[in-house]
Amino acid sequence: MNEASDQKYRGQGFGALGIGFGVRPAVIVVDFQRGFTSAEFELGGSPLVNAAVERTAELLAVARRAGAPVIQALVGSHGGDDALNWKIPSVRTEFHYDKPACELDPRIFDPAHDVVIRKIGPSVFFQTHAIAYLVKKRIDTLVITGCNTSGCVRATIVDGFSYGFRVIVPEQCCGDVDTGPHSDNLRDVGRRYADVMSASDVIRHLASISPQTFKET
Amino acid sequence: MNEASDQKYRGQGFGALGIGFGVRPAVIVVDFQRGFTSAEFELGGSPLVNAAVERTAELLAVARRAGAPVIQALVGSHGGDDALNWKIPSVRTEFHYDKPACELDPRIFDPAHDVVIRKIGPSVFFQTHAIAYLVKKRIDTLVITGCNTSGCVRATIVDGFSYGFRVIVPEQCCGDVDTGPHSDNLRDVGRRYADVMSASDVIRHLASISPQTFKET
Amino acid sequence: MNEASDQKYRGQGFGALGIGFGVRPAVIVVDFQRGFTSAEFELGGSPLVNAAVERTAELLAVARRAGAPVIQALVGSHGGDDALNWKIPSVRTEFHYDKPACELDPRIFDPAHDVVIRKIGPSVFFQTHAIAYLVKKRIDTLVITGCNTSGCVRATIVDGFSYGFRVIVPEQCCGDVDTGPHSDNLRDVGRRYADVMSASDVIRHLASISPQTFKET
Amino acid sequence: MNEASDQKYRGQGFGALGIGFGVRPAVIVVDFQRGFTSAEFELGGSPLVNAAVERTAELLAVARRAGAPVIQALVGSHGGDDALNWKIPSVRTEFHYDKPACELDPRIFDPAHDVVIRKIGPSVFFQTHAIAYLVKKRIDTLVITGCNTSGCVRATIVDGFSYGFRVIVPEQCCGDVDTGPHSDNLRDVGRRYADVMSASDVIRHLASISPQTFKET
């Protein structure tokens, strides 16, 4: 991060307030689907994404043990007229719900615990029923991981914040094609909408949640 | 922009497809309210924002002549419990709808033509009636200007794209506290969601719209 | 309809203004899925619904010939934790996306033309991408058919109106378990949000649309 | 209610499951604004609405004592192009945010406790920030009162249900122009989305809430 530039933002109060965890967190995993996590695909195979998948798997094991809800999101379309105006060709041609690019990476998906949300746009919240599931579970805090930080993760953080949730981003659980845009976006959201923390700190917090928390209706 | 990094994104097809104008554009001006445009306020007074205000005023004169709808958005809250968890103190304490920080800059606001949208979050679309107004006017293209590029403008571009609109961003009509985050965000959205163009090219296009376009119901 | 009661509403101006067709209509078919249209299912087999399916099939043939977009909606859940608090047991237990109750009735579904929207709640618009598809197609008018008039059809009419569309309801293309609630709901929406018309009048209008209408982008 | 008809619905399982209160309720008051509650206005002066205002005032006193959040909603527009296609003339011409028809009835409004939501459509949730406020307060149950039962109250119940809340409707706290549509709509929502209860039972429940409930963050 450019220090002189950062100084300008800090001088106006950007990032001055923290957010912190509430009492009932859920984890949202953004687009760890094969189209992004497997090198067979044009958009797949980034080492940064691969590392984020592995770290997210560790975080999810702890979250599930605590009983926290987990949302697995994937992006795509029915393959016809309903796709948005994406400027990336393979999102239009390969990311169809019935094609391999839309299969969730088995390293992070537990069908017995997780709820799947199919989306057409960047945000997990945009015109999906994610919000209804989170309200039903009385969630107040979102831990957001996934890829790409500079695309769908960023959009999901903004919407999570806009819906009134506390948003926590474990840095090493998010990946991108390259480090520059990854860092730029964590910088922007950390100034305004979310607490950007180390994955270890977030995992430690999730491990400390009382097993009773999610047992009360 | 870092050339080697950009190469990685282009190699995967980011930005490969263009979008272009449709037939009925509207202009959305994001948060050119005194809290951002006037140096009296902690978040105000950036020269980049000031230049963007001036350039947007020129663009709006042409858009209004063509009969294109204009949305003026401002961010704030009622000043109580309803504010979101902003990490920037003055957004919570000064950006109240009845305070000066929420007055639109007179250089860009024409109450006889423009529709005002009050929002609580970054995006002009998040839980506001912007979408209903645009549907009623049969708009297919959004020209998005305002500040900050790395905050509310970015969020509005993402949602405009997600709602199925063609999104055009006139670069010199958007401002920020500093140039780095401004450019970083135009880079991200130009790869995925929107055509980033020069203000002159957008103004030239708006000037070419037939005066009949917005007269048909 | 109770005449004295209707007089009270008319005396206050309810229903005094008409709406009419715009220039680019789409048809939304609400929940003509086997769970409602086939007598094998607890919620299926109503003669009123069956008649509405047949009449909607006629309307759709004309709409497709004109090139008008068609949305086929169905209600259900993934079968787990994500279902809403429906008070009707079989909606929770049988209306799962991979079960027969969620298959669209073949009399009204043309996979080559129609877009399918899966929803969890009553309204076709609630947290689905229906709005993005309609914006992309520059639709200004919705013809809404389906079942039940007193449930999901009513909710879809209210949201279509709220999004700024002109809403037209062809009476004989909507069905319900019984005629009372069907009529009560058409009465309510006709007073406020939509033009309730005969199916013949709507079909005649759709037949009159110039084949060029949907060819322009 | 027509007994034979009701039998048909009950025979298919409509209304078979109850919902019940969760742990953190909020009260939503729909459109008790002078345009509906005062006889000076074309849409005002219904004795049923007046009785519902009085009963809601009693319920709110108990809810505020318990610390439960209260949302006061009102319907209108900025008075220009942004109004929806309402079929009722005075909603378009008199229900402007700066006119007397949009002032909340003082019998139910406590500015020190309540949050105000301005809306353009029937539902308190449609494109407003009601959902963000309720998420921030970790609400799981909505008590919905107001007018008209056959219009904005119905729409708000449907959306509250769709967002995953438990919805409770105290019958005597809702009003309408006439009793028929009031009862018809309570019948429809009680079969599907909400528990319709007596105002006394709801007040008794609110009075029993521990004063600690809303003190925990």
The proportion of strand residues of chain A reads 15-25%
Oligomer: homotetramer
The CATH homologous superfamily of chain A: Isochorismatase-like
Give the name of the CATH architecture of chain A: 3-Layer(aba) Sandwich
In whole angstroms, the N-to-C terminal distance of chain A is 44 Å
Q: Roughly how much helix do the residues of chain A carry, as a percent range?
A: 25-40%
- Point out poorly predicted stretches of chain A: none
CATH topology of chain A: Rossmann fold
Biggest beta sheet summary of chain A: 7 strands, parallel
How many H/I helices of chain A?
8
Outline of chain A, from the CA principal axes? Answer: globular
